[in-house]
């Protein structure tokens, strides 16, 4: 438990930095809006409210993820990170919808815009800061397998992109004096924000629904194939899920039926050590041992097998396609 808490300290530090910076940038953007009365700048300022709310909720979810496993949560509390990302995605999409409707109204009933150069300077500075913080959060999230940090980082990267587009738009308005472009730019940025909110929500729903981690499955199958033992006749029904920073894999492995319990335990322990020694992340494995059947003999490479009913023909290479199916390879 102490090791896990130490591991999660960087996540807490990263999200706290994000929260503090989000508050400061939100105040700066609203100051820019009150200077200019620009809808496009209001778009960026409104999204900053979402940044603050999302970072606050993310900080709480990371705190929950540090709690140890208990009777009610045998897999730990890491799944709250998917819920955090879901909430952030919904908030982002909601902010985008509000921006589109507000900008559409102001396109029909425009208002005077002032001090665009000063506003563009403030927005450009906040965009650069969000870009740097976003990179920091994404890198920390990938290093510590935190979907919450990755989600918050990608959100800030989105904010930085919209800020860059906003600055370009403001310069264009200043040069052309076509002020209705302000609302058009705001609507386009709002649609972009909605799209990013959808993508984030889609990923979080997949995690909440225990969607299999395809990349992790590929890594595991590759490791098993490259280091397979003769006694490992086949691997099937292999699944992998992520719960916050914790990874869980369960699978069935077919072994010779005459192995005693000690030998079966040894083979399964070898798989556990292999995965945790060669995979990029520490993983909790749940392995079910199946006894071999006569139909397995033609692809079983077990040497000096005294119960073989058919000569060995050829090894069946394990792939994501056959290892994830819930059946032995001869079926």
UniProtKB/TrEMBL annotation:
User: What does the UniProt entry say about where the protein is found?
Assistant: Membrane
Instruction: Give an example GO biological process.
Output: intracellular zinc ion homeostasis
Tell me the ranges covered by the Cation efflux protein cytoplasmic domain, including all copies: 218-292
* Annotated GO CC locations: plasma membrane
- What InterPro entries does the record tag this protein with? Cation_efflux, Cation_efflux_CTD, Cation_efflux_CTD_sf, Cation_efflux_TM, Cation_efflux_TMD_sf, CDF_Transporter
The keyword Membrane belongs to this UniProt entry's keyword annotation: yes
Record keyword Calcium present: no
Give one Pfam hit by family name.
ZT_dimer
Q: Which UniProt keywords apply?
A: Membrane, Transmembrane, Transmembrane helix, Transport
Top-level lineage group: Bacteria
What are the residue boundaries of the Cation efflux protein transmembrane domain, all occurrences included?
A: 15-209
Q: Which Gene3D superfamilies match?
A: Cation efflux protein transmembrane domain, Cation efflux protein, cytoplasmic domain
**Where exactly are the transmembrane stretches of this chain?**
14-36, 48-68, 80-101, 113-136, 156-173, 179-198
Q: Which GO terms describe its molecular function?
A: cadmium ion transmembrane transporter activity; ferrous iron transmembrane transporter activity; zinc efflux antiporter activity
- Membrane topology type, per the record? Multi-pass membrane protein
What family does the Swiss-Prot or TrEMBL record give for this protein?
Answer: Belongs to the cation diffusion facilitator (CDF) transporter (TC 2.A.4) family.
**Protein name (record):** Cation diffusion facilitator family transporter
């Amino acid at each position: 438990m102490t090791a896990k808490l130490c591991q999660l300290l960087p996540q807490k530090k990263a999200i706290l930095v994000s929260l503090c910076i989000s508050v400061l940038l939100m105040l700066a953007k609203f100051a820019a809006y009150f200077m200019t009365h620009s809808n496009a700048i209001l778009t960026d300022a409104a999204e900053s409210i979402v940044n603050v709310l999302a970072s606050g909720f993310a900080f709480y979810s990371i705190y929950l993820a540090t709690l140890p496993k208990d009777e009610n949560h045998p897999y730990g509390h890491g799944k709250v990170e998917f819920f955090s990302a879901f909430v952030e995605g919904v908030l982002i999409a909601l902010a985008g919808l509000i921006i589109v409707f507000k900008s559409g109204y102001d396109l029909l009933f425009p208002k005077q815009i002032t001090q665009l150069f000063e506003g563009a300077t403030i927005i450009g500075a906040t965009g650069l800061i969000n870009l740097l913080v976003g990179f920091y959060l994404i890198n920390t999230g990938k290093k510590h397998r935190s979907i919450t940090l990755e989600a918050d980082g990608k959100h800030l990267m989105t904010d930085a992109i919209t800020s860059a587009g906003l600055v370009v738009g403001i310069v264009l308005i200043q040069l052309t004096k076509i002020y209705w472009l302000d609302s058009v730019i705001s609507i386009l940025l709002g649609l972009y924000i909605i799209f990013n909110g959808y993508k984030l929500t889609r990923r979080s729903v997949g995690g909440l629904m225990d969607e299999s981690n395809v990349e992790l499955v590929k890594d595991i199958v590759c490791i098993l194939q490259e280091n397979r033992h003769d006694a490992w006749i086949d691997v099937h029904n292999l699944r992998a899920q992520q719960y916050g920073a914790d990874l869980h894999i369960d699978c069935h492995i077919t072994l010779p039926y005459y192995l005693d319990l000690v030998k079966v335990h040894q083979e399964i322990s070898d798989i556990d050590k292999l995965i945790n020694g060669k995979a990029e992340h520490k993983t909790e494995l749940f392995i079910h041992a199946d006894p071999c059947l006569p139909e397995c003999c033609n692809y079983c490479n077990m040497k000096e097998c005294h119960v073989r009913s058919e000569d060995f023909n050829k090894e069946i290479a394990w792939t994501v396609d056959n290892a994830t199916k819930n059946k032995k390879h001869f079926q």
